[in-house]
Design a protein that fits this description.
The protein is α+β, with helices and mostly antiparallel strands. Helix content is 26%, strand content 32%.
Length: 532
């Protein structure tokens, strides 16, 4: 499918070039989305003939750019989205890219990440417009209104393809109230807008609280991004050193090593291990907001006299290598390279080392401990005891239950359909093949000497909270006498206060700071085991 898609893309690009030649002067504008006095997002965009393109910066999100080719009927033929690296300059290459071609009742997509790509065909309705319910892409919301103007009528239904997990096509309702106002409903989204006769959004209110403002010019500085800051905070009792670690596989891992100041002799140290998907050394993720759990861990342990090595995943940030081709076992080898690096430093006590892993990182730590009994402790945060297939069922059934449009009697068939889509990807995704079959309990039964601390939130919707006790029991049955479990009420998968725990609502959480009691538990246990 990749070659036909590429050929079609070239034809569309040629068409777009012709449209630009016909109308060289672009219409440029911007949107501000406000909640009270807080800016939720800023969007800069331009329309040149049949090409719509722009850039979005939203609170708690990474920068997004987009480019759409629009036909005379106000539908979209082609959409390209790019997810940029946080802190990267505008000219830097994207970390992820998606190209979607809309052809009748089909959408042909090709996703690019690192050196890998994936092509897919999705079903939809003819004339459907793309929209992402979690991204404030107001120019695409405007496109829905423009399409309704073309179709005509006071109450118009426009098919919209929702580009989110469980992608589906819904009917958006656009109700015009005179020539200058409209109400738009797309699923749970409800916007009341001031519009002109062409369908331009001039302003309005979304979800009853977010104010939309159209502006002629946005200051360039609102799009400025700052490089990620891995330095030690002012007055910290530790230093922060950037390190480069060569791996046996041939790629380089770049990270930050924080080392306590004024230490007498060599200091103990831990290596942090990120979860699945692409993350930098602080465990920051696309769409994850200002979440920096490992920066917090490094700060907490640094103040307790423990060094911390945290590294960008291979192929992420400043690290080289191909992330997409790596399995969980490959990532374990990367962490082993980090441990070997620490053991070779004169200021680190190689006899007092530990690991702190979150989610998939919590599965990797026991894999290493099973082959490295000299470790003094592993801390497992939201670690799985279930196989990948069991975790997918847990996540999938929860997500389906959250969708009111899916009736209870339909849930089993919807789940089977979604699982079949996952199974179809096995031949092309090494990580997925490993993940679905890997049994963490078998590994846990091989960790007999290394002490273990297991932490889990009770509202974790990614890994079952019951897995904490199942994992502990596997360690204990193997003869491990130092296993501790701590459960945290109303905390989600990434240890944020969250009574609901729904990952799709993370962005609306009031704080992305990990709770002090979680950090304190990690610090107390680690200090007791590594500093003795």
């Amino acid at each position: 499918m990749i070659q036909p898609l590429a050929a079609a893309a070239l034809l569309v690009l040629a068409s777009a070039a012709a449209l630009r030649a016909q109308q060289p002067d672009p219409e440029t504008a911007g949107f501000l989305l406000m909640r009270g006095v807080d800016t939720v997002s800023v969007e800069r965009f331009s329309r040149t003939g049949g090409v719509l393109e722009g850039r979005i910066l939203a609170r708690k999100r990474v920068p997004i750019t987009y480019r759409a080719v629009v036909d005379a009927g106000a539908t979209i033929d082609r959409l390209e989205l790019q997810v940029l690296q946080p802190g990267a300059p505008e000219e830097a290459p994207p970390r992820q890219r998606l190209v979607a071609l809309f052809r009748g009742d089909s959408i042909f997509t090709q996703a690019f990440s690192g050196d890998s790509s994936k092509a897919e065909r999705l079903g939809t309705r003819s004339g459907a417009l793309p929209y992402h319910p979690q991204l404030p892409m107001l120019s695409l919301l405007e496109q829905v209104v423009r399409r309704a103007r073309v179709l005509g009528g006071e109450r118009v239904q426009v098919p919209v393809f929702l580009m989110s997990s469980g992608a589906q096509t819904v009917l958006a309702t656009v109700e015009f109230r005179g020539a200058d106002s409209a109400r738009v409903e797309i699923g749970s989204i409800d916007a009341r807008l001031a519009v002109d006769r062409e369908g331009r959004i001039l302003g309005g209110v979304a979800q009853g609280e977010q104010v939309i403002e159209r502006v002629a010019v946005l200051p360039g500085r609102v799009f400025a991004t700052q490089p990620a800051d891995y330095s030690a905070p002012a007055g910290a009792p530790y230093t922060a050193e950037e390190v480069r670690i060569e791996t046996a596989a041939g790629h380089t891992l770049v990270g930050t090593l924080t080392i306590p100041k004024n230490a007498t002799g060599r200091v103990p140290a831990v290596v942090t291990i990120t979860g699945s998907s692409r993350q930098d050394r602080d465990h920051n993720t696309p769409y994850g907001g200002p979440y920096r759990i490992f920066r917090q861990v490094a700060d907490t342990l640094g103040r307790r006299g423990i060094a911390v090595l945290r590294m960008d995943d291979r192929g992420v940030g400043q690290s080289t290598g191909d992330f997409e081709s790596a399995t969980t076992a490959d990532r374990a080898d990367d962490i082993r390279a980090g441990l070997a690096y620490l053991r070779g430093r004169q200021d680190i006590d190689g006899r007092r080392l530990g690991l702190v892993g979150l989610s998939e990182g919590g599965a990797i730590a026991p894999m290493i401990a099973a082959t490295d009994p000299a470790l003094d402790g592993i801390v497992l945060l939201a670690a799985p005891a279930s196989t990948g297939r069991q975790i997918l069922e847990y996540q999938g059934r929860y997500n389906i239950e959250q969708k009111e449009a899916i009736r209870p009697e339909q849930r089993d068939s919807v789940y089977r359909s979604e699982l079949a889509k996952v199974e179809a990807r096995l031949h092309e995704e090494p990580w997925l093949r490993f993940f679905l079959s890997y049994d963490p309990l078998q590994t846990a039964r091989r960790v007999r000497q290394v002490p273990v601390l297991i932490l889990h939130g009770t509202t974790d919707r990614n890994v079952p909270p019951a897995d904490a006790q199942r994992l502990a029991e596997a360690f204990r049955r193997a003869g491990n006498r130092d296993v501790t479990v701590r459960m945290f009420e109303d905390m989600n998968h990434i240890f944020l206060r969250d009574p609901d725990g729904n990952p799709s609502k993370y962005e609306s959480l009031p704080s992305f700071e990990v709770a002090p009691e979680v950090l304190g538990t990690i610090a107390d246990w680690t200090a007791a085991h590594l500093k003795r």
